[in-house]
Write a structure and sequence with these properties.
Alpha-D-Glucose-1,6-Bisphosphate, Chain A, domain 4, 28% helix, globular, alpha+beta, 6 helices, seven-stranded antiparallel β-sheet, 2 domains
């Protein structure tokens, strides 16, 4: 694949007609695209149609519809300031193609045209490569049913203190990772390392607020979306970690269970660090 495009694919054990409905029906499309927060799309997926979001903002323009075979649309692959005219910005084209397989349907997603983007937007090729890696699994989960990895804990520390312990790599290295390349901030791409396992993961941060940290990460053979939600509970904080969605297959359900165990470990080690000053990575109290 050249520097102008990205490609992701997945085999879904479902008839082509069912997968086609997931990508060609605005309600279905908005459901899986939002990954837990449905996006309300307005308009029919027909050639030339302008599909907008609920507030009237342009989402995409449909170019090609070949029933149960191929859908293409153009969009601006980065967020525009309120009131900006999309026509003044370059677009990329997304092609979603369906192919029959012995076990169901292969979905192939290709986004091209990144070379047309201005220099300060070239990072979107990497972002969208990661994004489509997550989205193809979201489509499969929408078609087959889904399961989420989920863990929660109550930490007897104020929310701001819990948030700081997560976004600051120096603190995270005292309970979760061995090293982090940078602080978690909106739009940051960072690396987490576990030197004791000779492993690392690339983390692309979407958003950091006082209420949640939203990111995708890869390094374990796939890209997945993670949300760490923080809710104030008096002087304490309720933390809920979710990852997914994972489609309902035996392999993916096993992966969801493994990640649930992983995030439970994360929450427990974070609690031990903040409440008792214990570094469970090294088995000692933090000085």
């Amino acid at each position: 694949m050249n520097e102008d495009s990205v490609e992701r694919s997945i085999e879904i054990c479902a008839p082509r007609a069912r997968v086609w409905r997931a990508i060609n029906n605005p309600k279905d499309f908005g459901t899986w695209f939002g990954i837990g927060t449905p996006l309300e799309l307005v308009g029919d997926f027909a050639p030339g149609a302008r599909i907008t979001m609920k507030g009237g903002e342009l989402f995409c323009t449909i170019r090609t519809v070949e029933p149960e075979r191929r859908l293409t649309f153009d969009w601006t692959p980065y967020e525009l300031a309120p009131g900006e005219d999309p026509a003044k910005h370059p677009t990329t084209q997304v092609e979603m193609r369906l192919e029959d397989t012995a076990n169901g349907t292969r979905l192939v997603v290709v986004e091209s045209g990144f070379s047309r983007l201005p220099a300060d937007k070239q990072y979107k090729r990497g972002d969208n490569a990661e994004g489509w890696a997550v989205q193809v699994h979201s489509i499969a989960a929408h078609v087959l049913g889904k399961i989420m990895a989920r863990s929660e804990e109550r930490i007897a520390r104020p929310r701001a203190e819990v948030l700081e312990a997560i976004v600051d790599p120096a603190q995270m290295a005292k309970y979760f990772i061995s090293h982090g390349s940078a602080r978690m901030t909106d739009g940051a791409q960072i690396t987490w390392e576990w030197s004791d396992y000779n492993a690392q993961a690339t983390v692309r941060v979407q958003e950091v607020t006082e209420e949640k940290i939203d990111f995708t990460w890869s390094g374990f053979g796939e890209s997945t979306k993670v949300v760490i939600a923080l809710t104030a509970d008096g002087n304490a904080t309720k933390i809920v970690c979710t990852e997914g969605p994972y489609e309902l297959t035996e392999e993916r359900a096993r992966r969801a269970i493994e990640q649930t165990q992983g995030w439970t470990n994360f929450c427990c080690c974070l609690k031990a660090y903040l409440e008792h000053g214990i570094d469970l990575r090294r088995g000692k109290r933090v000085a």
